[in-house]
Amino acid sequence: MSDFESNKILGGIGSIMMMIPALNIVGLILLFISMKNFSEYYRDTNIIRNVITSGIFSIIGLSLILLGASLIVGHITFFGAIAGLTLVVVGFICQLLMAMFIKNALYTLANHSGEQLFRTSGTLLWYGALLSIIIVGVLLIWIAYLILAIAFFSLKTNTTTTSYNYTSPSPFQTSATSNAGARFCSYCGAPISPESVFCTRCGKQLNQK
């Protein structure tokens, strides 16, 4: 099994686990690993950077909400209740920022992979976080993770439908074109442009010289 397929499975299983409260932590870890690897695969650090920022806001927000709730419950004074409510509001804002950054990461992944279900999932996660104080928000988040799992399992490598009737170049052709900067894929032998990062025939990542 290729690394690409392994990362698909990690992301899909992690997304499904995020739908089950008891497995949230494990699902979050699997999603983080998958997104980190896809960030490296597509050579875009914005993916993992947004994921990490999202995780930081999530931890801060959850901590503030729990602290605020304990102040509200544990103090019957007016100022204690106000302080607790303030912490809960700030924590909720952090949760919105968390959703915004994970949405950005999924949008970037959608742009690179061409799988637009990542964009749909990111949008639903954002609106779910915005409406999380009511039952509709929780339902949207659950649906978002379901769509995210489908998006991961639907991922395909960077391939195109372009076909080539290619034969190995003769020594004369090789010497004639080498000065022009022509390149050939070391995996399938297809002609590629000098600036290509991936082969347009087999989708393999090319060695950069």
Outline of this structure?
This protein is mostly helical.
Task: Tag the structure with descriptive keywords.
209 residues, mainly alpha
Fold and architecture overview:
The protein has 209 residues and is an all-alpha fold. The protein folds into two domains: 3-154, no CATH class; 159-209, no CATH class. Helices cover 67% and strands 2% of the residues. It contains seven helices and two strands. It has helices at 3-17, 24-41, 45-74, 78-113, 117-130, 135-154, 171-178, and strands at residues 183-184, 191-192. Strands 1-2 form a two-stranded antiparallel ribbon. The longest helix has 36 residues, at 78-113. The radius of gyration is 23 Å and the shape is elongated.
Instruction: Extract low-pLDDT stretches.
Output: 159-180
Number of domains: 2
Task: Provide a count of the helices.
Answer: 7
Mean pLDDT: 83
Distance, first to last CA = 28 Å
Largest sheet: 2 strands, antiparallel
As laid out across the biggest beta sheet, the strand order is: 1-2
Structural class: mainly alpha
* Helix content estimate: 55-70%
Query: Helix and strand succession?
Result: HHHHHHHEE
Number of strands: 2
